[in-house]
Amino acid sequence: MRDVPMEPRTPAEEDPVTHQHLALLPAYAPRPGLADRVLVHVWQPVPLWLSSLGERGRAWLRTPQARLLAVPFFVGTAVTLVSLAVAVTVFSSYVGRAWRFAFEHVVLLAWEAGIMAAGELWAEALTRPAVRLVADWALPLGIGVTLLWILCALGLYWTLRVESSTRNMLHAKL
Amino acid sequence: MTPTRDLSDATDQDVVRYARGGSEAAYRELIRRYQRPVFSLVYRMVRDRELAEDLTQETFIKVLNAIDRYRPEYKFSSWIFKIANNAAIDQLRRKELDTLSIHGRPDATTQERIEATSLQIGDATESPLEEVEARELGSAIEKAIGQLRPEYRACIILRHVEGRPYDEIASILDLPLGTVKTYIHRARAELQAALAPLRE
Fold first, then answer.
1. Among candidates B178, B190, B142, B171, which has minimal Cα distance to B46?
2. ipTM for the complex?
3. Which residues of B touch A28 (CB under 8 A)?
4. What pTM was computed for the model?
């Protein structure tokens, strides 16, 4: 049997010069804290930039500039609201007509399209066994909880009524 | 189920299995194991520290979000290097970075940006002279690597720095085995030509 050389060889055996050069390079590492940053993105539903925006917003509200702006802001809002109320009152007929038009032509159509899309999505979701299992249990569970709720309410009402009538009776006797 | 024992001795496949079960400790262990090699590969591809850190972070986020899609019959290292390499190549396509300086990127104007993009070569325990020599040598080698085509660069780094076998490199880079061998051969020839003055 022929003596076949082992393949693959090590990089150092293949090209000692290149390997020697590249061995001189340091192993770089990212700055500490990578794991925390990654896990925040993977585990937290709220992105980092959003939470930092919230923090910066709260910090800004505590500054003197924010307090300075607060009065004009509230006055401006109040003036705008009053102006809007006047405008709506004065132009109510126009507003009414515009609203009816928008409702008939935009809102109803969007509602219809939304209902259809949701129906399709729901039908597709129901083809999955896990969703079907939840759906199978959701209706009886919902009915059961509602009945329980009604019974509890009735029970509470009955107890209070009995207690009240008993107290009235006792008061009458005394 | 979350393991309570030390994961440092567990195999990659075991750690991935725990991570799939939602163990945060397993996620941390995967990051601990691969942050240096992934960062080194990406850094040598894009040659910008800040950018490499962002791409490394992006790589791990992709890996951990898609951990359920990882197929255990393949090596985990191949999978993560593939994602990291794709991130680096996408970045290089978006923005050409073809120059390198040990003093930071040429477009770095502020001190903070210069520090963020400059190469960090050398060991704190070395003498000042050795440190300067190491920086110069390291800079020359990094510059030679930086002048290679991105495909050659990825091949040579994976072979000589990460010590990966040819078939794994082919799998990571989605290239035929013969192409990987050719790329490595050409990359070595180009590196030797670029580094010839250092040997004289």
1. B142
2. 0.70
3. 36, 39-40, 43-44, 52, 120
4. 0.55
